[in-house]
Amino acid sequence: MAVTSEMIKGLRERTGAGVLDCKRALEQAEGDIERAIAILRQQGLATAAKKAARVAREGIIEAYVHPGSKVASLVELNCETDFVARTPDFRALAHDIAMQIAAAKPLYVSRDDVPAEVTEAQRGIYRAEAAVEGKPQAAVDDEVERRLQAFYQEVVLLEQPFIKDQTVRVRDLITQAIAKLGENIVVRRFARFAIGEE
Question: What is the CATH topology of the domain spanning 5-51?
Answer without folding.
Answer: Helicase, Ruva Protein; domain 3 (1.10.8)
